[in-house]
Structures are given as C-alpha cells and as structure tokens.
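Protein 1 of 2
SEQ + STRUCT:
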Amino acid sequence: MSLSFALAALSAALLAAAAPARADGTINLIDLAELSGSGATVGTNFKNGVDLAVEEINAKGGILGAKIVVTHVDTQSNAGVAKGQAEKALDSAPYALLGPGYSGSVKVVAPLAAEARVTEIMGGEAADLTRAGNAFLFRTSFGQQSSMPKIAKYIAETLKAKTAAVVYVNNDFGKGGHDAILKEFAARGIKVLVDDSTEAGQADFAADALKVKTANPDVVFIYLNEEESARILKELRKADVKAPLVGETTLIGQKVIELAGDAANGALGHVGLTTDAPVPALRAYRDKFMAKYNYVPDHNGIKGYLAVYMIKAATEKMGKLDAKNLAATLHGLTISADKEPGILMDVTIDEHGDLDRESFLGEVVDGKQVIKEVLPKLKN
C-alpha cells in the first residue's frame, strides 16, 4: 500500500468516525491542513493553534455547553488532494471547515463548501479568494487587498523608494500578492526594475539575487513562502545587496528567522499577526503555545487559534448551535477582545468575509522580530 493511499484511507476513516459527533451534542470541526509536503510548516502551525483553542474552550465547558471535536486531515500541500479530502469532509456534515492555508487549495475547496452551505474559515491570503461572491468563506488574517496598500505606503513615504525589485513565488498566493503590490507601486510612481517569478520549493536563489544586485533598486520586495524566504535572504546577503529587503508576514516570521539566521536581520515587513506585537493577549497566547508545543508560534499558529474562537463568538451570538446560520452571523460581526479574550484583538468581519483590525510594521533585529509601529484599522 502506498503512503498516499494509506493516508487517504486513514483520513476517510477519521471522517467517518467524526460524522455522528453532532448527533451526540458535540460540535464537529474538520481542519484541512498542509501537514506534509511544501506547506508542512504552514499546516502544522495552523493545526496546533486549532488544538490549543479547542483544548481551552472544552476545558471551560465548550460552546453553549457543547464540546468541540476536531478532525485534522492532511491535504499534502496539494490542491487536488485538498479537493478530494474536502468532498469526504463535507459528506460528514461538519459544523464548519477550517483551512486550508494554501490559497490554491482554498480555491478548489471553497466552492464545494459553499455548495454544501458549510462555513469555511481558511488561512489563504490571495486577494481574490473573498471576491468571488462566496458567502460561506472567511479569512483569519488580512487579504492582500488590505495588506499591500499598507506596505506600499511605507515603502513610498518612509523609505522614499523610487525603484523596486519584486521577487515572488509563482503560485496563487504569490501571483495575488505580485499583482496587488504592482498596482500599489504604480499608484505611487515606483518603477519596477526587476519582476522575478520563482517556484514553490525552489532551493537555489543565486541567479535571482544576481538579477537584483545588477538592477540596483531602491528596495527589494519579497513575497515567497517561509522556507524560500529564508533561502533568498541568505543569497541576497551573500550578494551584498544594499537595498532594504521588505515583504509581508511571510518574510519576517519566526520560521524564516530560524532558518535564515543572521541573514534575516534588517528585513522589514507588514505583519497582520505576530506574537511579538505589544499586545498583552498575543504575548499570553505565545506563552501558552510555547508551553504546549515547545516552540514560538508563527502567524499560521495564530490563524488556527482565531478560527476556532471566531466560530465560538458567532455561535454564542446566535445563542444556539446553528450551522446553517453560522456564516450569516459572522458577516458584519465585531468581536471584542474584552468580551471574547480568545480573539486576541478587536476584529470586524465585513460582508466579503475579510477582516479589519490593527496590524504592525516589524523588523528583524538580532534574530528577533521587533515591532516598530502599530497600524490602525482601515475603518474606525
């Protein structure tokens, strides 16, 4: 029996076992996560965040007295596998789906969840995910349409950049960010000297670093997955590129800092979620996560945690376990951290399933992410 076949068989068995849980008065959640393959860092962090939230909520009596049962299913970081696993998951009539983290996988899973009228709270950040009219899809972090204007404004107004090199990963996540940042650069008169597409899982970035070095831009904008971000930081430092290295959350996350070592120092990024933020609730979450898993969580770990607390807040708002009306209740909902501490920061969910809350501008200093500035909600 092949490994992939064995994993699929195990997942099917787990889903079948989870199916009757709701009949017993429990809340059945299914997490579609990248637990193996190129996205294992993403999916494992998300899974661990989910488990921590479920453990906390169940220890306090659950949601409206109902305990949460979560089943984790491995998408193997593959959109085709994610689609197949989602079909099996939806057969079990879950209260909600969590994940996936990869935008490409979300694109094939979301229509299935919408057709089944099941709420999906995912980790993908591609801008177009919540612009397709899907009333059942929700984010756990900013989409690119929210984050790119903030970082472009910083590049133009604070760094005073007139030219840029853009290095992005050639997948749905990377292409969405690429298109969004180019639009923002154009609006601010920043000329793109290098527009460099790279591959997911790429190991060698020497040629990419040389392109950037030769062009000599005012700033280098990097939009890659975590492992690739660490590799290109090393190559750019080796090539002695002097321009500021700027990106989004994936550039200066904890995993990148661990993998890149000293090469991460000085990297800048807009960060929607970080346990290094000057927010007591986020610091407390980090301590709980570290006590349970013995490592510092990245933004994906926070996403998984928040997804469960979004479900809790909406269900308590309804006052009953009502999977059919969960999505409608989430739309337009403002969740206060004072009333629901597990949400960590006040957040408003709009009609598209996008989020509005404070975010941060960070820099890696001596191997640690340091928050330089707190950026306000887009709409106050």
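Protein 2 of 2
SEQ + STRUCT:
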Amino acid sequence: MSAQSDTDGPSDQSSSSFRLGRLLYGGVLAVMAVDGLRNAESRAQYAEAKGVPMPEVSNKAAHGLLLFGGVGVSLWRLPRLAALAVATFFLGVTPMMHDFWAADEPEEAQQQQIQFLKNTALFGTALALLGVASRE
C-alpha cells in the first residue's frame, strides 16, 4: 500500500468509495432537478418573488443544468462538463434564492441561511469533482 499525499486526490477514479460517493451525490442532484422540473410552476413563482429574471425559463434551464450535471457525475460521463454544470447551478441559484441577509423574519433568515450553507457545501463538492475530472 503506497502513501498518498493529501493533495493528490483519489488514486483511482473507479475506486468503490469514489464511485459510491459520485452515485449518491449525482443521484441526489438528479432527484432535486426532477423535483424542480415537476414543480416548475410553483418554483417559477418563488423565483419571481425573489426577483429572478424570466423565472419560468430560468427555473427550467437551471434544473435542466442540474439534471445534466447530476446524471453526468453519477455515471462519470463528460465529468468536467457535468461538474461544471453543477457548480454553475449552485453559483447562480444560491445567492439569489437563499438570500438570508435580506429576510425580515428571524426564522426565515435562519432557514435561508441553512439552505445557503447546504448549497455552498454542494457547490464545494462540485468544485472538488471538477478538480478530479480535470486531472484525468
């Protein structure tokens, strides 16, 4: 067994833990995307309330991007493009939809901050996968 530095990343992109992690991460993203597309009307209304331009189109485009990224990460097909799609989704959606700093009610601010932080972690994971895919 060889020692590996902390900055090298996975030595084998097909390792069981890496594969399971990709399946879980990408699968959850795909489920989130399908839910967003199935509930497009209510999601667009919420987006409109948040000031998103062209909310119907923006919602479908964003969730389509997330679906592409989630499936791509899960299957490790076009991995750089898939991870970039996921990162782009979270980079665009998170500050716009979870602007906890603008909430009037403390409970709403807390809920939005939780969602903001969750999305930030998911964005970070997408960046990490982008780094792994770029080294392939």
